[in-house]
Amino acid sequence: MLSKEVLISQFAGVRKRTLKYLQEMPADMMDWRPAPDKFSCGDIIRHLGSTERMFYHAITENEWKYTGHGPEKGETLEAALHYLQDCHEAVLTGLQQLEPEQFNKKVKNLLGYEVSAWRIVMAMIEHEIHHRGQLSAYMQTNQVQPPQIFGLQIEQIPTALPDDQNRDE
């Protein structure tokens, strides 16, 4: 298992990159959805906050509860981001207060079988990355260029590795 500090740092880094995406999203995209039965951009933002609390509750209480992602959690982009940040701060504070051995305790996953709590943290991270990719696709569909996740476009990266330079000869 990764250390408690590394897990928390990784999660904080994922959120930082997600916020970079959300800062580029126009406020008028909040209600946009690709189809009537799919999440809107606002739904995704609110869902990320609510599921973050859900994952943390599962770690600490060994039960799963989801409070929903309705507009009452933030109708505007600003309000939804505030909800997301409130959830994140509460969960980060809670994770930091857990003892390292609590990350190894067994808790039930959504299917009912037991896994280590650190795996639930990893699932929370993976879940956010999934929805960040979804937001990226939504933005691009609406001609909004999302930020580059690590600052460069693939075309800006050198095309040959040092070991490959002699292979063409």
Automatic annotation (TrEMBL):
Residues 10-135 form the DinB-like domain. Pfam families: DinB_2. It comes from Brevibacillus ruminantium. This is DinB family protein. Gene3D superfamilies: dinb family like domain (1.20.120.450). It comes from the Bacteria. InterPro entries: DinB-like, DinB/YfiT-like.
